Amino acid sequence: MYKPRAWIINIGNELLIGRIINTNASWIARELTLRGVDVKRIVVVGDDIAEIVGVLRDAIGNADIVVTTGGLGPTDDDKTMEAVAVAVNRPLTLNPDAYRMVREFYESQGYSLTHERLKMALLPAGAKALPNPVGAAPGAYLVEKGTHIFVLPGVPREMEAMFKYVLEKLKPLLPQLCVVEKGILITGMPESSLAPLLKKASRECLDCYVKSHPKGHELEKPVVEVKVLASAEECSKAEAKAEKVLEKLRSLLEGANVKVEEIAH
Amino acid sequence: MYKPRAWIINIGNELLIGRIINTNASWIARELTLRGVDVKRIVVVGDDIAEIVGVLRDAIGNADIVVTTGGLGPTDDDKTMEAVAVAVNRPLTLNPDAYRMVREFYESQGYSLTHERLKMALLPAGAKALPNPVGAAPGAYLVEKGTHIFVLPGVPREMEAMFKYVLEKLKPLLPQLCVVEKGILITGMPESSLAPLLKKASRECLDCYVKSHPKGHELEKPVVEVKVLASAEECSKAEAKAEKVLEKLRSLLEGANVKVEEIAH
Q1: Phi, psi of B46 (to 5 degrees)
Q2: Is the CB of residue A50 less than 8 Å away from at least one CB of chain B?
Q3: How confident is the model at residue B124 (pLDDT cuts 50, 70, 90)?
Q4: B28 and B127 assigned to the same domain
Q5: Of B40, B43, B75, the CB nearest to A195
Q6: Which residue range or ranges hold the MoaB/Mog domain (chains A, B) (predicted)?
Q7: Structural domain tally of chain B?
Q8: Residue that terminates a domain, selected from A170, A204, A239
Q9: What is the pLDDT of residues A91-129, one digit of tens each?
Q10: pLDDT reading at A265 higher than 70
Q11: Where does B63-216 show beta strands of DSSP type E?
């Protein structure tokens, strides 16, 4: 079953100094995963051109889809567009669409176009500008060596509002897959005792992703969440694949002194 | 001013499918940053040996300190120790200290040592076992080509409880630096208008890290947080460096119709 591979690159010193929790990464990862994309890597780098270029080039060589966040603002340390241009060996140019977006954004409120504001209309040559419905900085979309690159802002509200354009552009690439996640919560058995049962149950669906997450203390208060992520062309089939693993696990747990609960989604 | 460089590597499919927000990364990043470490990169990879080995080797070539989280549990998809062993070309061996820790953990509660439990006592040859005061799986500490590698569990409560051992081992490596962060909140000026003033103010401290974070809407409700991270051998000097940048910024903002507030820490 073909799944496009994605890398998520989050750019910003504020992430590296731990001032901000990277909620953008998990939000994007979830959106892509549930649409049949295989997120292979998430990388956080600072606002440093060499660092950004290095990871972008790695990503272009390894992923079908790259989504970056951050570094699109008007300040000097917002360097992402410049780094993208370097990474794909293209000049940074004034993009006519991005220029119109930035100009309209500011002029409609009576602000003139300064050097700092114009900076946000500079995109790598050949990139398409992505509108920002809730902020100033447009995003960018470009294809390099077959890799689809989306450059989005770091402010979560703006990034999320622009993600519809990502999905629009990706539509022809996305597999016709329904991805579902089902889980159970098992109370009363240490994860280490559950492990061999889980291994057996996992064999019921070789292309499912089965994982246990300890929630309590291994021995004193063992609570383990088991999640199964399954995909198929039809949702009912994906459901059935996940259910098969959980059913097997339930049957293996029969007789053990444990409580098994469904996890609601 | 010498600052050791660190990479944080978070391992787990659950992070790549967006089921979990990576709070471990920001927690560790904060701890290291405030002790004078320069966190250069955060990478999230799945429970896949080739992926983990790839990023570990990158890290060993680029960082003085590597902290990994996740993949130490008893289940089959917990592959981190094996990957670390491969990355440093050492065999995975039963570590006597780790064996004692795991055995004591289970036997004290009347549990026997199964294959899955013994797995948690397998460490790369030459690694030191790090005790886990709140869980089953020990961590590991090893030095490879001058890079200090710490392998910690992914459960935040366990990882945080074990971080004291990381700091203990790192002590000789940490610079005698006091790192402080100071910030102001500016209401009433778009980030794009603030940008040139910020650039000027930043020149007051070339080794400070100065960053603006838009909090509201660029034009309709402009609120920008400016943070300055400064370090020096003495805290008072670090404070003074940060304050110099903010003072300059305040003076440049004089006369503008803005509200400037201190940010408490």
Answers
A1: -80, 180
A2: no
A3: very high
A4: yes
A5: B75
A6: 7-174
A7: 2
A8: A170
A9: 999 999 999 999 999 999 899 999 999 999 999 999 999
A10: no
A11: 65-69, 92-94, 122-124, 128-130, 139-144, 147-152, 178-187, 209-214
Q: Considering only alpha carbons, which residue of chain B is nearest residue A214?
A: B155
**To probe the interface with B, which of A19, A106, A108, A193 has the most B CB atoms within 10 Å?**
A19
Tokens coding B191: 């980030």
Residues of B whose CB is below 8 A from A42: 15-16, 22, 42-44
Q: Residue B229's domain spans which residues?
A: 178-262
Q: Let me know whether A82 and A209 are in one domain.
A: no
Q: Going by C-beta distance under 8 Å and a sequence separation of 6 or more, which residues neighbour residue B205?
A: B228, B230, B241, B242, B244, B245
Interface of B with A in 163-222 (CB under 8 A): 181, 190-196, 198-199, 202, 209-214, 217-220
Percent of chain A with pLDDT over 70: 100
- Smallest CA–CA distance, residue A196 to chain B, in Å, is 8
Looking at the structure, do residues A50 and A139 belong to the same domain, yes or no?
yes
Compute the average pLDDT of residues B131-159.
97
Q: Which residues in chain B are closer than 8 Å to A193, comparing Cβ atoms?
A: 114, 116
Confidence of residue B79 (pLDDT cuts 50, 70, 90): very high
Distance of CA A57 to the CA centre of its chain: 18
ipTM over 0.90: yes
Shared-domain flag, residues B55 and B71 = yes
The answer on A101 and A11 residing in a single domain is yes
Contact A106 B229 (CB under 8 A): no
Strands across the sheet containing A259-262: A209-214, A223-232, A178-187, A259-262
A182 and A214 belong to one structural domain: yes
> Does one domain contain both A149 and A187?
no
* Domain boundary, last residue among B122, B152, B173: B173
For residue A259, which amino acid is it?
K
Mean pLDDT throughout A50-77? 96
Q: Are residues B152 and B183 in the same domain?
A: no
CATH code for the domain of B252:
3.30.70.600
Query: What is the widest separation between alpha-carbon atoms in chain B?
Result: 74
